[in-house]
Write a structure and sequence with these properties.
Pfam families: Peptidase_S26 (PF10502). The chain has two helices and 14 strands, in the order ββαβββαβββββββββ. It has 302 residues and is α+β, with helices and mostly antiparallel strands.
């Protein structure tokens, strides 16, 4: 609000005429020699005075409401700026919510199952557009997914209104991620045969040994248990980088879903570690997975 005092009399009385002293709010005609229309010549009040903030008034009378209109005019720019700032803040908030819901979503890593690639407390960004336009998860990708139905049993209770609201809140980033969300590395895609013969031996994908030394936690075996699986179409075989501390597809072989994660449960590809700043890095697909190209499976048809 302007601090300028509107040019009106304090008691609201009309501007004086004749020989009475001039009101502080009156603006007289241009200066001239005294006695010739100068500041002292106010007899008769026949001149035309210009009143600041009001209309032209004859006889030295001040137009009513001129001061109030001037005050309102001075306040308009301030109100306009406040409205512009409010609109800008609203647009920024809406943009942030839309980006969080459909483009990129932050997550906190809760455990050490992906060390040393990811550490507890790391903040990662899941790129939700990575597979949005006909793309599919690839071998070597680090993915964030909902483990309901694969790593966790489906709830037998139908979702209520509270569950729906929480789900919307999570999509918009207003509610923390549920404890059904996991982050793992894709080892096999639909059609791949993934095999382990136990400790001390590498995993094989379609019969080709996989060199995991670039990301496997130091001292860990590729797998301490033997398994031999063929990944169904549209599903994924996923494992943690810290194999001795990871409950992954191997641990759910005998459960409904067989430990395979449906592609439509993937929220996004973890592309960046953004916090702590000292660990800021991109999560690129390891070069070791290029040796699997042309070995078969649906991964070679994409």
């Amino acid at each position: 609000m302007s601090t300028h005092e509107p040019p009106a009399d304090r008691d609201g009385s009309p501007a004086p005429t004749g020989a009475e002293p001039l009101s502080r709010s009156a603006v007289v005609s241009p200066e001239g020699p005294e006695g010739a229309g100068g500041p002292g010549d106010v007899e008769g009040g026949a001149g035309v005075d210009v009143v600041e903030g009001g209309e032209k008034a004859e006889g030295g009378e001040k137009a009513e409401g001129g001061g109030e209109e001037a005050g309102e005019a001075e306040e308009e720019p301030g109100r306009s700026r406040s409205w512009d700032l409010l609109m800008l803040a609203g647009i920024c908030l809406l943009t942030l919510l839309l980006v969080n819901a459909f483009v990129a979503r932050p997550y906190a890593v809760p455990s050490g199952s992906m060390e040393d690639t990811l550490r507890p407390g790391d903040r990662i960004i899941a790129n939700q557009l990575a597979y949005a336009f006909g793309g599919h998860p690839q071998r070597g990708d680090v993915v964030v997914f909902d483990g309901t139905g694969s790593f966790l049993r489906e709830s037998e209770q139908p979702p209520g209104i509270g569950d729906e609201l929480r789900s919307v809140g999570r999509d918009l980033g207003l509610v923390p991620a549920a404890d059904t969300v996991f982050v793992k590395r894709v080892i096999g895609v639909g059609g791949d045969r993934v095999t382990s013969t136990g400790p001390g031996r590498p995993l094989t994908v379609n019969g080709v040994p996989l060199d995991e030394t670039s990301y496997l936690a130091p001292g860990d075996d590729p797998s301490s248990v033997a398994f031999d699986v063929v990944v169904p179409a549209g599903e994924l075989w996923v494992m943690g980088d810290h194999r001795s501390a990871s409950r992954d597809s191997r641990d759910h072989l005998g459960e409904p879903g067989g430990g395979f994660v449906p592609e439509d449960k993937v929220i996004g590809r973890a592309d960046w570690v953004v916090y702590p700043f000292s660990r800021w890095t991109s999560l690129d697909r390891p070069a070791a997975f290029t040796t699997l190209a042309g070995t078969g499976g649906h991964g070679d048809q994409r």
